[in-house]
Amino acid sequence: MEKLASIFCHISSGMMKDEAHRELWRQHDRLAQEAARMGRTIEHCFFHVGEFDLEKPDKVFLRLMQRAQADDLGLVLIENRERFPLSHQAQIPQMDVYFVQEHQQEVFGSQKIQIGMDDDIPQNGWVYFGF
To answer: Where are the alpha helices (DSSP H) in the chain?
Structure first.
């Protein structure tokens, strides 16, 4: 069975567009190398810009939560804890997260959390990008 991975790249608001693109792709390249080293196939890439608002998630973060609820993310690779500033008690669907810089794998969220699902949610192999 193929081992899947998803990549989550994040920057805060306020960077110039070109600088933001460079930083997101730098994170992507680092995480893609780590996925390859782990023998995992990347299925989803999430490029998130801005703040995390669990009450009103933006499109990219909502798609991450929807894919987590659908249980098809595989292992979510994130550069470091600063790129995913949520606690284990965050009200999000359960996902396995691996922090590359810290070399730590953890489970975030809960299987009991349910969020609304869109009919137009892509199924496989998609990139989610939001500015």
So the answer is: 17-37, 59-69
Nearest CA among 86, 75, 91, 99 for reference residue 27: 99
Give the residue numbers spanning the domain of 47.
6-129
Max distance between CA atoms of the chain, in angstroms, equals: 42
Q: Please tell me the pTM assigned to this model.
A: 0.87
CA 74/CA 131 separation, integer angstroms? 25
Q: What is the CATH number of the domain that holds 30?
A: 3.40.50
The pLDDT tens digits of the residues spanning 19-73 come to 999 999 999 999 999 999 999 999 999 999 999 888 888 888 988 998 899 888 9
